[in-house]
């Protein structure tokens, strides 16, 4: 059983104390006896304890920095949404393949932003500029926001803020089952709650520190009963011995547990495993015993948007993945919609 995240070490930026959430979090961790250190900026966070790289890396992932989001220009977030709404950065999970391995670089600690009203005002401005077109915001581009929201409730506030808008829509995805505090949020159907799922092999060997498959499915059933539009990201789709059976078992379990409320408006996003050369180096440094297959000779090279190519499965393997997943989704969830395969 994965327990809700609790940091072992907290850093707080001075201006964070000017905001109600900053003061609340300081008081909360102080009462719990968590060590709190002051820092002028998250970039000044130094001296993460540990005798070697792996220890320091693990300790950083249980470190929380409470600060401000200074840049209120939102990044784009295609194909999932128009914009990424910045609520947090970093993740407490240890998924070996995760793209945050390289984007977070040497700073894998978790950051939460307390200037939520400023972030909401910026989101409102983006909605106004696009009106009357809907504006979709993705809340989990740089973090698993559900993983820390039992502490901060910034996601819950965002769900309720977007729920009151005319043209805003919110999306996020999680590998954690700690959703109970979000079930009574006034979402007004404007938030799509998505779960990242994988088969038991991938979760066991490549997703340490995250909720198990059955826990995620149970949480998804609760979310559907709370009236949220529901979606699933199957990612990364990873070819291993027995992958066809493993993924069919996933869909069978899902079909058995999901309530009827979930079935009318269900979406799937399918993402094959890929890696870059820089990611491979970082993954092997952070997880030297990983079972993750990173053999460039077995893959096809695909140029990326920013000049960094990635290694994806061979064309015939991709076709097989598409066919197998289309078959399973048609069999178990014929009314659902596949948003994309990439």
Q: Quick gist of this model?
A:
With 342 residues, the protein is an alpha/beta fold. The protein has a single domain (9-267), classed as pyruvate-formate lyase- activating enzyme (Alpha-Beta Horseshoe). The protein has helices spanning 20-32, 53-60, 100-103, 116-130, 146-152, 154-163, 200-206, 213-225, 243-257, 277-286, 315-332, and strands at residues 9-12, 35-38, 63-67, 76-77, 81-84, 88-89, 110-113, 135-138, 168-174, 191-197, 230-237, 267-272, 300-302, 310-312, 337-341.
**What's the average pLDDT?**
94
Net shape: globular
| CATH topology heading | pyruvate-formate lyase- activating enzyme
Named at the architecture level, the CATH assignment is Alpha-Beta Horseshoe
The domain count comes to 1
Major sheet: 8 strands, mixed
Which CATH top level class fits? Alpha Beta
**Gap between N and C termini:** 31 Å
Notes on the protein architecture:
There is one protein chain. By secondary structure, the chain is α/β, with parallel strands linked by helices. It has a single domain, classed as pyruvate-formate lyase- activating enzyme (Alpha-Beta Horseshoe), CATH 3.80.30. The chain has 11 helices and 15 strands. The protein has helices at residues 20-32, 53-60, 100-103, 116-130, 146-152, 154-163, 200-206, 213-225, 243-257, 277-286, 315-332; strands at residues 9-12, 35-38, 63-67, 76-77, 81-84, 88-89, 110-113, 135-138, 168-174, 191-197, 230-237, 267-272, 300-302, 310-312, 337-341. The chain has an 8-stranded mixed sheet with strand order 4-5-8-9-10-11-12-15, covered by helices on one side. Helix 8 (213-225) runs parallel beside helix 9 (243-257) and helix 9 (243-257) runs parallel beside helix 11. It is globular.
